[in-house]
Design brief:
The chain is of the alpha/beta class and 264 residues long. Helix content is 33%, strand content 16%. The strands form three sheets. Strands 3-2-1-4-9-6-10 form a seven-stranded mixed beta sheet, with helices on both faces. Strand 7 and strand 8 form a beta hairpin.
């Protein structure tokens, strides 16, 4: 199933760019955030970056690492230097936390995305059909190559909606074409502020996407269910060691084959 639109994009033979979002030093008072130590978070980003660097030249053409707390990333630059991939990786570091923490992570992450889309040298040199894969930079999407290689041939935005237990759109991994972003997602962060009655930015994100479904082509279900690893920011527990996460993943995986209409 896809959301209808009058736009059509072909994105088979263009670049795949990973956009890794990062906040090494989060401000105090961010709702539902337990993993706040900058040194611990930097280690998370380093481990994830090493994994994603191994994919360059396989399913990934470029990596864009964007950090919005103006923190020291010399360790990350050294990892890229050691991998001899400096021509394939761009770092952007800026002070982007000039908003109330109560606005939440959805607002902050897509405010970062907006800055990246406007300031990246790599993205400025890409055709409109090249694809940006926005990944929360501390998390490792173990099967991202399968997700990328199985992508639809035509879309503006490629994401993953859920209906059960609540209507939301996952934010850990979202893809869009460069032209699709300009047509439908530009400045979307302004609609993602947390409200006192809603601490689910994924719900707000889905609502914002659905409002755009008449002007951009949204494919709302991944063909391959993403499998994430890393330490969850809300509870400091590793995804792959959480029985509930593993159960949810395998239920979603099985349902995608035998009950694809059941969006869980």
């Amino acid at each position: 199933m896809e959301l209808s639109t009058s736009r059509h994009r072909t994105s088979v033979n263009n670049s795949n760019i990973l956009l890794l979002t990062a906040t090494i030093t989060p401000p105090s008072g961010v709702p539902l955030l337990a993993r706040t130590d900058p040194s611990v978070r930097l280690n998370d980003y380093a481990n994830a970056l090493k994994f994603y660097l191994s994919l360059v030249g396989k399913c990934v053409d470029y990596i864009l690492f964007v950090e919005n707390s103006n923190s020291d990333i010399s360790r990350l630059r050294a990892i890229v230097d050691q991998a001899n991939l400096t021509k394939s990786v761009e770092f952007i570091v800026f002070e982007g936390l000039d908003y109330p923490p109560a606005y939440g992570r959805g607002y902050g992450e897509f405010k970062l995305v907006e800055y990246a889309m406007n300031h990246s040298t790599i993205l400025n040199n890409q055709p409109g059909e090249s694809i940006v894969w926005k990944v929360t930079g501390r998390y490792i999407t173990k099967n991202i190559c399968r997700i990328i290689t199985s992508k639809p041939s035509c879309f503006d935005v490629y994401c993953h909606f859920q209906n059960i237990p609540i209507h939301k759109a996952e934010m850990y991994l979202v893809a869009w074409t460069c032209s699709g972003y300009q047509a439908g997602l530009k400045n979307i962060y302004q609609e993602l502020k947390d409200k006192p009655t809603n601490h689910h930015p994924e719900v707000t994100f889905r609502n914002a996407l659905e409002r755009r479904s008449k002007t951009i082509k949204i494919i709302p279900r991944f063909k391959v269910i993403p499998f994430f690893d890393g330490i969850h920011g809300r509870d400091n527990q590793r995804f792959s060691s959480k029985p509930l996460y593993l159960l949810k993943y395998y239920v979603r995986y099985i349902a995608s084959w035998i009950m694809p209409w059941l969006w869980i």
